[in-house]
Amino acid sequence: MLPQEVIRAKRDGGQLDAADIKAFIDGFAGERVTEGQVAAFAMAVFFRGMATAETVALTEAMRDSGDVLDWSDLDRRVVDKHSTGGVGDNVSLMLAPIVAACGAAVPMISGRGLGHTGGTLDKLESIPGYDVAPDNATFRRTVRDIGCAIIGQTARLAPADARFYGVRDVTATVESIPLITASILSKKLAAGLQGLVLDVKTGSGAFMARPEDARALATSLVGVANGAGLRTTALITRMDEALASAAGNAVEIRNAVRFLTGAQRDPALQEVTLALAAEMLVLAGLAPTPADGHRMATAALEDGRAAERFGKMVAALGGPADFVERAEAHLPQAPLVRDVTAGRDGTVASVETRSLGLAVVELGGGRTRPQDAVDHAVGLSELVPIGRHVAKGEPLARIHARDEVAFARAAATIRSAYVLSDTPAREPAPAVIERIG
């Protein structure tokens, strides 16, 4: 296999053989294929696309570039979820313990913040002592004994994908649906899953802002995952406002604990979390239909089993044993906590959700460079949802900031992100738009 011939074939619109794709990725992993050749290949795919069979082959080749986890020693099916990212999306924190409490195993490999979107690992690092990179024995023991563990990707899971993404990131080829699909699924296949549910976001806070683009990505992900032998379904969900009423790190952990204990449950967040849980329970063979799965998940949430699992997972991965009971005492607090208020009466007609995510980054709760440290205490809470009426001077959000300068910047961003109208208050649209698979 000559790398340049693979690039030429794709450049000219040809369909590549699985063997050539595997040889190309193996060559890249073994440094026999250069970064320049990968960049040319990625650009060819960006313009020419890939058939489903090609994307399956690319996904499997990147999966096989490192370790593939084996959970055959467990007496439960292994399932997981992946979100394409958004603002205030702390679903994983509740979803993993809910599904574990219902009898499935959830070894959840999560990531850090990307652009304006938050990262589950950054949120969990708000918890003192929580280890997002435990040794393999601790990870497996936590999944076996508690049913769930949320950790970061190891260097040995799909390493070719990490290198491939680094090239795509600097060559304007990130947005290619076949390459996105292979990147997401190679890591999930390497995690040894038996079922996967995808949460594909659309709206002003999503990478796929247009519904038709989200649908195309969801269709590609489901088709390729199933083609690679991983039973998968997808939900397309709204990201035209923050999913939770909080966006940041410690503030989202606090929101998740309140959700699990029943102190506060944001309606859209509850809808999406339980819908994803229902799909996971069907894939795990624990519920015959999504409706049955929804009832099981709701019961695990309401009777406290999910909160108990979350607390045990935190303790097993190095966090405080009493974290659920004393979250406020353990989580970092920003020195300045103050509301930003509406400048006029009106109903929230829309929110530029991406701007809310960027406000969190500007506060220090995200990164502008990979090496940047994250301030876990800062963020936004008490975010007013679309459809709610506010009077002049009433809060739109609560800002958790380090100082007055940071507060003023975030307040200006939030005021510009919220669009108020003179229409009456209304019920919000459903958070789950469509199911694929």
Compose a concise summary of this entry.
By secondary structure, the chain is an alpha/beta fold. Helices cover 46% and strands 15% of the residues.
Features of this protein?
4-stranded mixed beta sheet; single chain; 437 residues; 17 helices; alpha/beta; globular
Polypeptide structure, described:
- By secondary structure, this protein is α/β, with parallel strands linked by helices.
- Helix content is 46%, strand content 15%.
- It has helices spanning 3-11, 18-29, 35-48, 52-63, 91-101, 120-124, 136-146, 159-169, 177-190, 211-227, 250-261, 267-283, 290-302, 305-316, 327-330, 353-365, 404-417; strands spanning 79-83, 106-110, 148-152, 195-202, 231-238, 247-248, 336-341, 346-351, 379-381, 389-390, 395-401, 418-421, 432-436.
- The strands form four sheets. Strands 1-4-5-13 form a four-stranded mixed sheet, sandwiched between helices. A four-stranded antiparallel sheet has the order 6-9-11-7, with helices on both faces. Strands 10-8-12 form a three-stranded antiparallel sheet.
- Helix 10 (211-227) links the parallel strand 4 (195-202) and strand 5 (231-238).
